[in-house]
Design brief:
Radius of gyration: 21 Å
Strand order of the largest sheet: 3-2-1-4-5-6-7
Shape: elongated
Structural class: alpha/beta
CATH topology of the largest domain: Rossmann fold
CATH architecture of the largest domain: 3-Layer(aba) Sandwich
Strand content: 15-25%
Helix content: 40-55%
């Protein structure tokens, strides 16, 4: 990285669930007065952060390495050596950039730089995304100056409840509102002159998609083919797209408005325009649902480490902002049982929306940025109009 060394290093990634909160904090730091060139990312070569961070307008270095399997195999042995190479490069990067503070997002890519920060006595801040912390964050939390918690019961020491940082594009879209404009932009409005008012159901389940969710929703569209009061925008995901790219024949000749898309790159609009959601319970998803006040049927990923998606859903479930269906129990019959009463009862949806908003933390990115500035001993002044947030857009369907 040319020029003046960055004062802040943000490390981690692997998935958008780690990377997007980091970008959100970086945007908040720039808005607080930190020069954009003074915020630098370090991630992994195998994750998506290289492209995402560059698209957001920040610099990034990428480390070799990958997650280690919890069994002895040639792949796990190779992963150990790759991780060691990443640690060496991580130490070199910290020595090179000499940051005032390091923010650890979690994920294997965060290990090297965070450990270097501990050894070299650089202040370390950990920000966790899930209600059950990752292995790297549990380890680094022992030495962190402070840990930013997304939920009240997240299991990290020295914790401060901040919420999970959401991208500025999501928060701004919700603040603007304008659901009719969002529906128009997404093609969810009726032809001119048709005043039919549809309940919009948004479906997403990670960048790859989830076959269990896709199967149930595809069959739901078949069952509801003649419903003129419902629209479904179904984000299938890349893995299942070849199998689900076309609607069932009954839908093509019916009254249901059923949109199939491989990838949703306009997630802020979908959050604003939808009335209901069916989705996984990833940390970013749960945070965005609460900010948007969007009632949801949550289907936690059954293989999530430490069952963290179920834990992520707990706060929304407790206040009544969402319903939960186990992945193993997700059938079209169960989906109809959960969704039909909500489609038919706008008053119940309104109560769920208010409950979801009651646990929203839309200023989480700013709160984490303030912790970073404080622990780094940085003297910043609010930036002008050109120093604020730009570049990033929400990843539509990340877990």
């Amino acid at each position: 990285m040319a020029g003046r060394s960055p004062r802040i290093v943000i490390t981690g990634g692997g998935t958008a669930g780690h990377t997007n909160p980091g970008i959100a904090v970086a945007e908040a730091l720039v808005s607080s007065g930190v020069p954009r060139s003074n915020v630098h990312f370090v991630g992994g070569q195998r994750g998506n952060e290289g492209q995402m961070v560059a698209d957001a307008g920040f610099s990034i270095d990428l480390l070799p390495g990958r997650g280690i399997e919890r069994r002895l195999s040639p792949a796990s042995v190779g992963a150990v050596f790759s991780l060691l190479a990443g640690v060496v490069k991580g130490f070199w990067l910290v020595l090179r950039h000499r940051p005032r503070v390091v923010l650890c997002l979690g994920g294997y890519a965060a290990f090297a730089v965070s450990m270097a920060a501990v050894v070299l006595r650089v202040p370390l801040v950990v920000t966790e995304q899930n209600a059950r912390s990752s292995a790297v964050n549990r380890l680094m939390g022992r030495w962190a100056r402070v840990c930013a918690l997304p939920f009240p019961d997240t299991d990290l020491p020295n914790g401060v409840l901040t919420g999970n940082p959401s991208l500025a594009s999501v928060v701004a879209a919700v603040e603007r509102g304008e659901p009719d404009a969002a529906r128009t932009a997404l093609g969810l409005t009726e032809p001119s002159g048709d005043a039919t008012d549809r309940t919009v159901i948004a479906v997403w389940s990670g960048s790859l998609g989830a076959t269990s969710v896709n199967d149930a929703v595809h069959e739901l569209a078949r069952r509801w083919a003649d419903r003129r009061d419902v629209a479904i925008r179904h984000v299938v995901g890349r893995r299942d797209w070849p199998s689900f790219a076309s609607p069932p024949p009954e839908v093509e000749t019916g009254e249901l408005l059923y949109q199939l898309v491989e990838y949703e790159d306009r997630m802020p609009l979908l959050l604003v325009g939808a009335d209901l959601a069916v989705c996984r319970a990833g940390a970013s998803t749960v945070a965005e649902l609460s900010i948007a006040g969007l009632p949801a049927v949550l289907v936690p990923l059954p293989i999530a480490p430490r069952d963290h998606q179920r834990a992520n859903a707990a706060e929304l479930l407790e206040v009544g902002g969402a319903l939960l269906v186990d992945d193993a129990e997700l059938t079209v019959e169960r989906l109809v049982d959960e969704l039909a009463p909500l489609v038919d009862d706008p008053g119940r949806r309104a109560k769920m929306a208010a409950a979801a908003r009651s646990v929203a933390r839309p200023n989480a990115a700013r709160a984490v940025a303030e912790l970073v500035v404080e622990q780094g001993g940085l003297d910043v002044e609010p930036a002008g109009e050109d120093g604020g947030q730009n570049g990033a857009s929400a990843d539509a369907h990340q877990p």
